[in-house]
């Protein structure tokens, strides 16, 4: 192994260690002091790293928050990409659920997922005007829904309709409905069902 290769491995190990320290510090701050304490400077201080290291790893506060909630997000993605029907496609020998049933299951599961971490998701999405759409999660959601919508209504503008179904699950609107207007989660899910019915039964 060359000197340069050894240095590269040490650098990668240091970077991985810094990432773990930063995420642990962010999680501790969230647990002990709430979302308002989650600034890049404060996370760097608690983690014992330079603030430039935090910015290089996560770019902005939105990127840091998305990384903190990544474990739950990975579980959610696995459930709709590989899990059992109706949310997922099922395995070999398991019949796939009809596309409308899969969309309904996805929207309900996404509502549950948003409910679980709505305060964090709102912080991330509000960090910049396009934060929600820059994250890879949104692109995956939109593509998944557009594919299923295309099976229900061939020729429809499936990408637009996918955006329309995802719009009510923006964290700021979701939290406003839940915590200001007092809507129960089941009412939000019923509203999503009504939007889906409009796609299933055009005109």
TrEMBL record:
PANTHER family: HTH-TYPE TRANSCRIPTIONAL REGULATOR RUTR (PTHR30055), POSSIBLE TRANSCRIPTIONAL REGULATORY PROTEIN (PROBABLY TETR-FAMILY) (PTHR30055:SF209). Residues 79-98 are annotated as: Disordered. Residues 39-58 bind DNA. Keywords: DNA-binding. It comes from Actinomadura rugatobispora. InterPro entries: Homeodomain-like_sf (IPR009057), HTH-type_TetR-like_transc_reg (IPR050109), HTH_TetR (IPR001647), Tet_transcr_reg_TetR-rel_C_sf (IPR036271). This is TetR/AcrR family transcriptional regulator. Transmembrane segments: none annotated. Residues 16-76 form the HTH tetR-type domain. It holds the Pfam family TetR_N.
